[in-house]
Write a structure and sequence with these properties.
The complex is a heterodimer of chains A (543) and B (115).
Chain A: H1 2-12, H2 54-61, E1 66-67, H3 76-83, E2 88-94, E3 97-104, H4 115-165, E4 176-183, E5 190-198, E6 202-210, H5 214-232, H6 238-249, E7 259-267, E8 272-278, E9 284-287, E10 290-293, E11 311-315, E12 321-325, H7 327-330, H8 341-349, H9 357-370, E13 380-387, E14 401-408, H10 414-424, H11 432-453, E15 461-468, E16 472-479, H12 495-499, H13 509-516, E17 519-524, E18 529-536
Parallel strand pairs in A: 4-14
Antiparallel strand pairs in A: 1-2, 2-3, 4-13, 5-6, 6-7, 7-8, 8-11, 9-10, 9-12, 12-13, 14-15, 15-16, 16-18, 17-18
Helix pairs in contact in A: 4-5, 5-6, 10-11, 11-13
Chain B: E1 4-9, E2 15-23, H1 28-40, E3 45-56, H2 58-74, E4 77-81, H3 85-93, E5 101-103, H4 106-114
Parallel strand pairs in B: 2-3, 3-4, 4-5
Antiparallel strand pairs in B: 1-2
Classes of the chains: A alpha+beta (543), B alpha/beta (115).
Chain lengths: 543, 115
Amino acid sequence: MTALTRPIRRLLGQTAPAIEAAPATRTAEPIAEASPTVDAATSTIGIDIAESDPLLAYLQSAPGPVDLARLELESPAVTALRDAGVALIVPLVSQGELIGTLNLGPRLSEQDYSTDDRRLLTTLAAQAAPAIRVAQLVREQAHEAAERERMEQEMRVATLIQQQFLPRELPSLPQWQIAAYYGPARAVGGDFYDFIEMPGGRLGIAVGDVTDKGVPAALVMARTHSILRAEASRSDSPGEILARANALLEPEMPARMFVTCLFAILEPETGRIVMANAGHNLPYIRTDDGVIELRATGMPLGLMPDIRYEETEGVIAPGSNVLLYSDGLVEAHDVTQQMYGFPRLREAMTVDDAGSELLDRLLETLHEFTGADWEQEDDITLVTLRRASGVSDQTGEAPTMTSAFSIPGEEGNERLAMDRVGGAVADLGISPARLERLKTAVSEATMNAIEYGSQGRADVPVDVEVEATPDAVIVRITDRALSGAVPEDAETPDIDLKLAGAQKARGWGLFLIQNMVDSMDVTTDGSTQTVTLTMARKEPTDG
Amino acid sequence: MNATSVALDRSGPVATMRIAGDITSSSEAELMAAYTQAVDGGAPAIVLDFRGLEYMNSGGIGLLVTLLVRAQRGGIRLLASGLSEHYREILALTRLDEAIEIHEDEAAAIAAVKV
């Protein structure tokens, strides 16, 4: 019944061009000659027919034109049509489905419609109905295609906004290893994280999640991001920062949207951490005594005015790990609709990971859990802090860091990967020329990952991880190996052969990568392939 | 991704294709159209000026090779100018610099044709 009513409503409303060929007309002549001098001849009548109106069932099975004056039917639609001056209704039925009507006013001659008129109208309706149905289907398809395109476009915009506000580089603090991962879902959610330098060498850390997806969520995320930054410059109390952010966000928050956010301030030298929480997941701290949650409660941002946020304080001992994260991790489902969940997360945290191993292992356990064909439902954000164990002083050593992110596997995004890696290693003292080389290698390797690993699909991500050891920068680019292994270039590209037409013009990718960095290794485990690029941080002094 | 733009200058006997933005495999149409126009205008030599180049990848290098093949067949001399140190290094590495003469700037490239 719904299927039947939908086209009818559209036909009688103002939207369907089909009605323009089927106007209510007061001319006595067949509708094709509707006189342009009669205004009514070209007007549509806006009558909404209820789904339950008996007229619809009647028209569906009517053998031909229906005389409204003689129709005895308890129907609001019939009354409305009569009031609009309709005398005769010709049902348009295609494949047993009522797809519209031709509505005619009384003949101008004031005589009734003749048998000939009715026969002509019946023939016309029989021929017009399938054509109109086809036109309706075409229009529906075009509409659906446009809608899909619009959504794709919106996702691209949301991704762009999102990427714009994620930190381009990670803070480097002596004795601390900080790693972050952001993996967007196909319909980009509103996850964010931020590191804010604060007076006295302290570090502000924000992790948050905007409800809703797409552009609206991305815009609220952008706004929250800048409010938190501004408030962090005015206060050194996480509770106060969240309370002020809430006061600013609440009046302007779109309906049914809010932001969960955890804000922590870390004193790197002492390991003291103070945090407040606006409805976000609680951070986990792993110590030698076990895994604990740092508890603090508070309403999400933007829900109601005048909220106070309690503060919790803790000390992160040397050798401890801290994890801040978003829902996307714990709420990831496997093929059997089982959830990753907190117990698994806790379990994964019990191992004593050094450096950025915790982040790597969490992602590994997640991928093991979800399997290869996983469609990520929500954004996933992970931020890990590791306080180096022991008292060994690293002063004098080059700073180390790890950064990880994902990009949608769509052509052109290699530039995103290249720029983010460039930003992440900008402070490591690598010479500009070598930095350019690293960027070219990253871009080429990511292009391959997109082309072969993701087959150009935005919903199949490419993961990029940057690690700086005291001696080298290591970039790992992991793809989902949809096309299997990246084919090794069968032949070394040779310009003479190419100019002579003996080799194709393309095929420089792997050659460039190999020549831009110190080493390139490819490993594969069946469902993923990882290209590891290594470049020494110092230029070798001589050959 | 930044769009490619190729502005063709045919004011002198040597045509200059001024390249701005990115050169990737998606730049093929712009690059080839400008080249064809320059050749149709009767230029015996074409300078590719890369001063406005922001990014070139292996796909873009492939396009340069295609351009070189066409130029060699047509007896057209190809020169390049305005390349950053990084891209000069890449052209040297790929030995494209043996097939395309590289000059510091557009004026130097044009002067080299006239000598």
